[in-house]
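> Could you send the Response regulator transcription factor prediction when you get a chance?

Sure thing. Input:
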Amino acid sequence: MRILIVEDDERIGSFLDKGLQESGYFVQVARDGVEARRLIQDETWDLFILDIMLPDMDGFQLTQLIRYRKMDTPILILSALGESEDKIKALDLGADDYLTKPIHFPELLSRINALRRRYELHYSKDNTLSCGDLTVNLDTNAVLRAGKEIVLSVKEFRFLVYLIENQNKIVSRSQILQVVWGAGSDTYTNVVDVYISYLRNKIDADFPEKCIKTVKGRGYMISAQK
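Output:
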């Protein structure tokens, strides 16, 4: 399950990012409305968690944008604004749930699970990604290559999902760092090369056809052999 968190408070954003990743979710954090708008438009998400008071574009406006674009992805508002008027406004604009800060993490997980169950009850959704004979199940985190199970670490799994979601496209080291290791990460870029090596050893080493490709000077790409 892919979750986009829009939260300008770095401490809260990091807390949510870490907690939800440890709970098995694929998470990305946007720090302002402009970055959130780009990610909403350019990528596919299973849940939006939005703060209301944001720089550039607030959570109400982002909710309007999501629904204006005919996206039925669940929206959970997570805000310090606890007045009934704020909750009513958010729900009327298209939010599915509203949780007031401070955050009680077990309750947040319960709300997320409830939204997920409600969404899956009404919509049939294929949560499997594939690239040739390589398949990734986003619900169970199972990875198969030609029917053979492949065990990945959390970071390896996130990295592979990002590559497959952008298959046949070149992704740069900086893009990979931002998505897999977090926006503004100070991790050295050679960690990307190290994890590419890990993935190749697990995904490609035992197969004659190689999925993961290096594009010299530009980054990496995953594609199925024709």
